[in-house]
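Appendix B. Raw example, untouched.
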Amino acid sequence: MVAIEEIKSLITKGEGLKIEFKTAREALPRNVYETICAFLNRKGGYILLGVRDNGTIDGIDKNVVRNQLKTLSNDLNNAQIISPTVRIEAEDVEIDGKTIICIHVPESAQAHSYRGVYYDRNHEGDYRLGNQFLITNLFIRKYENHTENQVFPHLRIDDFVAEDFDFVRKRVALLNDKHPWINMSNEDILRYAKMYLRDERTGKEGYTLAAAVVFGKRNALAMACPNYKTDALCRKEDTDRYDDRAIVDCNLIQAYGQLMSFVRKHTPDRFFLEGDRRISLREIIFREAVVNLLIHREFTHPYPARLTIYKETVVAENWNIPHTMGCITPENLIPYPKNPTIAGFFRELDWFEDLGSGVRNMFHYCPLYAKDKNALPVMEENDVFKLTVRYEKENASARRIEKTDVNREDEILILIRENPKITMREIAEKLSTNKRTVERTMSKLVDAERVKRDGSRKIGKWVILKMSV
């Protein structure tokens, strides 16, 4: 039973994500079932019958209250009206001499429909799920397990990029020379990282969706999640189309390097002295943005993940299974990893911090990066997660230094990792520079013993000795 003071408090708050008012003076409004389904399918809520949209208590005719409660109970147990059927608490209460009905709708573990139509809820009210993609996402959200744990028995170890396992071993060795992955086989790393599981429903064992997106070759990615990709766009001058674009459809280990390279190419760097240590604000901020874009997303949904760089802001968007709704701040944050297995793997590579730490870092460093104390990041948690980071407008000197030799070295190493047989001319074309510049940078990499040439100029290949990302 809901206390009268609590109901008054709900009326004072007004309609929102979890509160709905409906007039019902003479009869039960039929659209009450749309709201019931929407609440069941989202986070639950309260429906107050006999209250106008503006919060005015209109009341219900006392002669029809019992009939309304009976109709409501019967309809909720009728599978032709609400499917699956559900039991919901509803009671009549008297406030200021007027009778209203309070319906408390809990969040359901199942997806519900009203006369065959599915509804969902946002801050603006109920909305009908009008296409199969939205309905599929509803069922995914209700699914008891994370989709990253979906088992694909036909995946084999040959479906994964062997060089990426070598990269992982070298990466963790730099962080901890006693890390257990250093001496593990590729298969053992996947098992240790919980990317080889048994499907409890079928009893079949196999590599998971997480394994496919973290280490998979393109054919494995296409099989496990055919819609997976990240679209990186630079729209500083041409906002209708783009100035530069990179379609990143490789696995997450490679995608991290490619997206960070794209960010370095199109945003200014600003070094900052923290204590006696010089740090790159851009690296700290966009590492969080890129990692969030890669790992806190629903890989099975066709909505494209996108990173867009504008003149003053960078916006990252991806499909999401929200745990809460609205803007995230350090004060209201409830840490909830969307893909805990993948998040844990990235944490071992030191590319990801716990959710709370990452959000606090963004709110601390973004104003410093933009040189504006009001330039806080905007994190919007809905079906589509959207992160907006603002930075200071570029000036002529910033444009001259944004492409440093260090940045170009990292970009070349990433291209070599993707294609060890890549030519100087091909590198120049991909980086929009000239061949002489590439040759000069490559000479520096060789001298620094970061790469070496294996074989002749025509049929040989490059071998990476040390990565910096």
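End of appendix B.
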